[in-house]
């Protein structure tokens, strides 16, 4: 607890320092005046410049770096806010992370308002839509489990498209009816403006719900339906918002049946066009990663650049940038992960998480800061209460109605408990706020009332529903996902069941989900793998080869462990004792492995000795004698290198990992243990007379194959070891 108060006090001091622009400006002006007292204007060949009579030691340049400095400090403050409440794990287990960030934003907003008497910092729509939102959308699309997403794509589209239109239309019409009845007072609004408000408030942002789902491990179907709906829902919401915004600009008197048809066509064109732009850029990045083998340093950068470019291109074409960036991440992840190096894949994953998590943190902190601004608050109790009531009721009605329709066609219907969780998980968040602050005050006279209502809806859903979601999931006993990995028999059974379903659909003449998936898999293996993947990546997609590769790695690890136990790996080279064909060469990366070639690598006796395929050079095997080989491994295991043998590399084109330090440390420890055991063994040599009736224990030395030697012979052997060590060091020098 003291650490929490210290961190909070530090944040307050930082905010107080950066949120006093008048003080900074005054200090900058005073310093500027002090500096100009010693300056004189003289002409030069390039124009006029300031000559100084004395050299200033330091100058105050706040106006030159004010903008980037504030950006960096705000990022630091936002991440420190996340660090503050992580000091109390019991708090984060009760209140969702997004709710805690909003609470911290309230505190920071109070500090800023108390210092300036005005809210100096606000989240602008341009910064939100072009710098913060693309990173979150790209990470969500890239992290999407493809198999689950496309297996439930029909249900996800129903909830995301039809469900979003239902929520927007019903809320707008219900508020319009209350306005006509005089329930919400005399406000300057109309049907189109209330429909626009319904479209922006329909944006679902279940960050807290997804966090609870991951912690509780709910079943996969419920997880992907909520996750997929929230991701596509944002894109559909923005498209609806733009359509109604165009209707408001056009005017109610000019809207007829033709304009309504144009609006419907525009809705589908913008949504589908944005998705197609994302698919095109996904194909482009997949082709590009085929050629980045030699430039792995900048390989991850292409993923982010083209992802952001897909977002901007869709925005430039007046299409849906959110859907474009989403389908870019969904469609490219499989191919770029196979083409890129493992280190590049890890870099992309971690960098995306850093950017997305940082953006979410900044957004929710500013959602709290925005509340401490009296100029935006226009309180209308009836409008706020009816909005909360309608979004809650119509959300449940829409989920139950659409699920009833989907269950008529689903092989495994959605249970009632899953429907309750989906209806209760409709939290509102950043997208709704970003859309409402982008409204034009000249066209929307009640903009501040909409902003106030949107903020309260976000606070209510994130706080109340986010806090009660975890107890609700546990109380309803929602079906959990299996945490343990499936056995081989279960995998074979599921695979067989999929093939049976495809065969049944083919025999009955129905073109269903399984039939389409089977056709897509055939098309992907025949054409897309050839076009978008490197030859080595195509070979790694072979399931039989992957299993064979994992078995080989497991066998190789068992051989290494056995070698460490014996003190040497020399037994592997003895072809008469190991059932391994060391001279058999694997096919190259571009060749296919047939069943007969695969069987020739398999061991003939699995019980007697595990098999392994090791890549060893034939010439090396012929040139080395057994004694030289044993001596080589003995030196490798029981000597440590000198400092001159360390290789410190620095390259601007390749990632170099220096493993010499760890190797030296391991060899040194092993050598010291071996010498300590040898020293202990000399203490109980044959000259020590003990009253025990058992024969004396002779010392053991590893170079003699574990045979016992007399004490004097062992000491002589140690002197020879030291001379050999000095000789090796002199030769290396």
UniProtKB/TrEMBL annotation:
It is found in: Apical cell membrane; Early endosome membrane; Recycling endosome membrane. Pfam families: Na_H_Exchanger. Residues 78-475 form the Cation/H+ exchanger transmembrane domain. Plasma membrane Na(+)/H(+) antiporter. Exchanges intracellular H(+) ions for extracellular Na(+) in 1:1 stoichiometry, playing a key role in salt and fluid absorption and pH homeostasis. Major apical Na(+)/H(+) exchanger in kidney and intestine playing an important role in renal and intestine Na(+) absorption and blood pressure regulation. Keywords: Antiport, Cell membrane, Endosome, Ion transport, Membrane, Phosphoprotein, Signal, Sodium, Sodium transport, Transmembrane, Transmembrane helix, Transport. InterPro entries: Cation/H_exchanger_CPA1, Cation/H_exchanger_TM, Na/H_exchanger_3/5, NaH_exchanger. The chain crosses the membrane at residues 67-85, 94-114, 126-144, 156-182, 194-214, 221-244, 264-285, 297-314, 350-372, 378-404, 416-437, 449-467. It is a multi-pass membrane protein. Gene3D superfamilies: 6.10.140.1330. GO terms for molecular function: potassium:proton antiporter activity; sodium:proton antiporter activity. One of its GO terms (cellular component) is brush border membrane. GO terms for biological process: regulation of intracellular pH; sodium ion import across plasma membrane. This is Sodium/hydrogen exchanger. Residues 1-24 form the signal peptide. Residues 679-733 are annotated as: Disordered. Residues 716-733 have a biased composition (Basic and acidic residues). Belongs to the monovalent cation:proton antiporter 1 (CPA1) transporter (TC 2.A.36) family. It catalyses: Na(+)(in) + H(+)(out) = Na(+)(out) + H(+)(in). It comes from the Eukaryota.
